[in-house]
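Practice problem 4.
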């Protein structure tokens, strides 16, 4: 228990240092991008004269030296203030609080589905290696991995929404329906099916191939041969000896990709008009809304770091020898 607490504390200290570095780096990268937010706001207001643009720069602190802007931004972030959106005239924290739940529902559901289905299919392929089932799973995984996800999303929407009419084509919920309770949950779940399947297919294919390759490698090791010599059942050898040791590379990749799912959801949220932060990031880039972009980068960075800490903890739970060695 003490080792686990030390491991967790050590990861938190490193995470804080990494997060500060990410905040500074994101600030300079966003401000290095071409475009002037004051010019964009003035253009949208229909008054793009120099006096009005200068007034906007002074109002939002854009005329100050970059280092001074960085110090102001870092100070606000340390206090939980993510800035103010010039475009939407609202605090960034409020905007993200509205959009983040939709993205979390989408990405976490897709991640769980991709991991569970990928590991199950990879295990089945490894157990039945050389058979038609192995060949079918390999072909399906290759197709899912090689096909662009936006194309899959459009085809699924065309088939299940337009041709068959079984599922809604876009959105988070039925606008104007006014559902509450279980009816609202069912409505959101119906809207969630197509985006989740589209996002999960690509990652499921990767997990399936990785699980199959890792299990085929582990099943030839000496401790598995010893388990067979002891007369253990095939299912016990697969689950307790082969899969338990083969799952570590899958956990590593899953921990990295879990955070990347948020970034990867931009295409899915755009295709299905899903009101998450991926779509918000796309809109913020077009509008040169720097503060919103910085807020999105910060939130996604925190999620990546949290998933990596969870991955380290899972290592210790799956194989206690790793925790001891650390």
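Answer key:
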């Amino acid at each position: 228990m003490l080792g686990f607490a030390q491991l967790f504390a050590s990861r938190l200290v490193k995470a804080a240092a990494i997060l500060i570095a990410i905040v500074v780096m994101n600030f300079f990268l966003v401000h290095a991008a071409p475009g002037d937010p004051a010019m964009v706001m003035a253009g949208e207001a229909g008054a793009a004269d120099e006096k009005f643009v200068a007034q906007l720069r002074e109002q939002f602190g854009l005329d100050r030296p970059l280092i001074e802007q960085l110090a102001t931004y870092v100070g606000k972030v340390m206090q939980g203030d993510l800035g103010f959106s010039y475009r939407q005239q609202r605090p960034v924290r409020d905007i993200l609080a509205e959009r983040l739940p939709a993205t979390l529902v989408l990405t976490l559901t897709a991640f769980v589905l991709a991991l569970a289905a990928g590991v199950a299919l990879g295990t089945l392929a490894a157990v039945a290696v050389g058979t038609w089932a192995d060949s079918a799973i390999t072909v399906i995984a290759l197709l899912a991995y090689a096909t662009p996800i936006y194309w899959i999303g459009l085809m699924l929407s065309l088939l299940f929404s337009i041709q068959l009419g079984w599922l809604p084509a876009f959105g988070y919920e039925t606008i104007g329906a006014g559902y509450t309770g279980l009816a609202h949950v069912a409505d959101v779940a119906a809207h969630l099916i197509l985006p989740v399947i589209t996002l999960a297919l690509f990652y499921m294919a990767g997990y399936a191939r990785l699980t199959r390759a890792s299990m085929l490698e582990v099943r030839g090791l000496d401790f598995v041969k010893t388990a067979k010599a002891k007369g253990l059942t095939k299912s016990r050898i697969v689950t307790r000896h082969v899969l338990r040791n083969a799952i570590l590379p899958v956990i590593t990749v899953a921990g990295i990709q879990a955070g990347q799912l948020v970034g990867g959801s931009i295409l899915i949220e755009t295709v299905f008009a899903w009101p998450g932060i991926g779509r918000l990031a796309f809109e913020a880039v077009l509008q040169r809304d720097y503060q919103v972009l910085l807020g999105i980068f910060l939130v996604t960075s925190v999620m990546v770091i949290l998933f990596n800490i969870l991955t380290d903890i899972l290592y210790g739970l799956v194989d206690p020898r790793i925790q001891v060695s650390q």
